[in-house]
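Lecture notes, structural biology module. Today: joint structure prediction for complexes of two components.
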Amino acid sequence: MAELQRKNVLGEREKSILTKQAGVCSGTGMKCDTDSVSGSVSQRACVYCGARVVLNPITDAYHIIHGPIGCSSYTWDIRGSLTSGEDIYRNSFCTDLRETDVIFGGALKLESAIEELMSKNHPKLIFVYSTCIVGVIGDDVDAICRHMSEKYSIPMVPVKSPGFSGNKSTGYRMACDAIMQVISPYKTDKRTGGINILGDYNLAGEMWIIKNYLAKIGIPVVASFTGDASYDEMIKAPSASLNVVQCAGSSTYLANRMEEEFGIPYIKVSFFGIEDTASSLLRIAEALGNEEAREKGIRFCDKETGKIQDFLNMYRSNLEGKKAAIYVGGGFKAISLIRQFAFLGMKTVVVGTQTGKKDDYEIIESLVDEDTIILDDANPAELEAFMKEKEADILVGGVKERPLAYKLGIAFCDHNHERKHALAGFEGVINFTREINESMNSPVWSYIKECGL
Amino acid sequence: MLELTPKEIMENRHITINPCKTCEPVGAMFCALGVENCMPHSHGSQGCCSYHRTVLSRHFKEPAMATSSSFTEGASVFGGRSNLTTAVKNIFDIYDPDIIAIHTTCLSETIGDDVGNYIMDLEVSDDKTVLYASTPSYEGSHIQGFSNMMIGIMKYMTQKAAVKSNRAAIFPGWVNPGDDRELKRIAGVMGVDYIYFPDHEGILETPMTGKYKYFPKGAGTSAADIKALGTAKKLIAMGHITSSEPAEFLDKQYKVPFSLIPMPIGVKLTDKYVMALREISHQEVPQTLEDERGRLVDLMLDSHTYTYNKTAAIYGDPDIVYSFTSLCIEMGMIPKYVITGTPKEEFTRQVSALLKEHGIDTGKCVIKADTDLFYLHQLIKNEPVDILIGSSYGKQIAKAENIPIIRMGFPVLDRYGNTIQPTVGYAGAIRYVEKITCALMDKVDAEAKDEDFDVVM
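The predicted structure, tokenised, for the full assembly:
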């Protein structure tokens, strides 16, 4: 049966899929970070998508999409990044290019669009995303942004993100470059002893949870990228003493640039799961050389871990021995999830990412049991084949995977931007456990089992 | 929420804010999903395909499968021929559909990819079809993309035949699977033998079996039916803006006469559908249908005092907005703002004519095509309405202005169970009269003083 299903895997894709062997690491490495194969139902998005998801949560920025309407429609207020301040980012601005613009150029339309916004409101920051055809028709978006920026004395940052110019990771870099363009003028040698949080998008308010922990152990947060970020906060970022990188896929590049250009060192952290949350908090204190914070951190984490033990013990009996499949965007999140499942007594049987790097896959391989399937840029046919083969009980994934999992009679937990409950920190452990328990143990499954599953 | 929307309206804006439409390719993808054993293919960057699948998945709560040419920098410079050739081979190898329905994107159109020619050069076995439709995102809207794909499919698949068959053809336009079921049921009850195209019943609403099939068996318009469209003796095409071009195509190419009617929503417009069916079958309207109609009218009568003279803002895709405007008028409501993002001026003319026909002063209403929800919000800030009727994207306005919202059309991203039930037909109208009345009455309850709060309403 497994063989039959596996025939649905394209030959070209074989190097992007590996099975963990007993006791050894494959050594050959994973083929990843490559272009998708034409004609497969890839779950991946494009450069523009990558750029947009990183910048979108900046709450008081005007995000103008320069291109036809689609790219603006599809990204309008869908990411679930919460705000404690303004909500300009929840609007969708677009030059809505038409055929005549494509023939005669869209530069004038973009200029007029910016003028119209400036005449009615007082933007502090504007991002102009150029989508696929803008590069082809040759609009000089750089020049327009420069000119308008001078005219109105506010930063207007071009984000060159034609979909075809790479994959989603390329878009992350474009976004990071745009952020650097905004904050670079505020470069300083002054150090505040605080940190910047990179790669957290405040989904379901997770940034607030992390900030709250840091406040409790006495570590100030200077700026956050980009969850609940505002322009005024962003430009203070160069004065931070340390960057912590939560979503490595999207923000390691930004951390590297800030290290090179501002001299701010960085560490990678993860706030998913008890182990990772606790170790991240302590590592931040250590990196800052803040002994007091470290000690507070130890006490805080002990206390919080203690608080949720009963809860976890109660649920562990429900979850122990169940099999999980993971399909997420970045490698680091996959790693955290494998650990979290292990903590709950669950076994990860399939694990894939959209944009994981070689290093990530090496860590993943070292964490999982033998026979676990590891795959890069999986398509639904592969996910389906391997989830069935490995008899996964639950899939953790994003919006496109949810209906697929349900159709296969597999429970589901959204660990992407459709999550409605915070999954970070100790609260996140509770929510996550509850959510997977809810999805796996709903009475609806009894009817589905009747279908012969 | 939306606090920065200024009251003062700016005419002739160059910037679109909070769109009330999306781009052509998603319409083409949706249309192609309604064909049996057909894989929609997006010829462009990967993001397009991913976004379209996402929005369809979010609306239908179902997997939506489509493939992409996955353009790279190289493809955008040298053309997408090799991507397409590889894609077609891979799709047949791995997913094994009978048909690949390719649509273009703004990128492949702008760089001038001649997809028609690329296809001709492909080696495709006789039992398979590769077809295409041009759907540049910088023209029209998703509605146009839907029409273009209908025409594209017919261009490649429909065949000339010497004899007309006894079957009719039905073009439902852009509707949900629940509507497909209802429209077919009514046609069946009226004794019409038909070809129904496209057909999403059983595709974007597959029953739970624990198995997932890319191409559910027996669902979608079959290749044989599409081939035979040219033999249809008569066509009923629904939705003036969505279905007129496909209907004209079929008439021009294969001499299939058509009646173009509005989407059958509410009493009068469903009557039109039933009458159009009767013209084909020459069968009396059966009592079951009369009874459904009677129940709808009875419900409208029972609830009329709660809806009479209430003002509505109706927004979304042109055909469904037109038909909901008609339903609102039947309920005694005033369609104060009637807008669509789709750039079709016929919409304005048609809706104005509808209002005039019912003696409604169009001077007191705003009817506008090619506009956005920012404009609608500004109108509402100047003069509010009692209810919003349209896609999920109106919920921001609903919250900002404390106006109840009824979700209809595309996309509905934040509610379940919508797409498997009908909006059309007497049954669909019963569903929506209930929804609208309940929403208005819920507000009465929520805002009632204790002394006015009543159990019996």
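Point to remember: Chain B touches chain A through 82 residues (CB under 8 Å).
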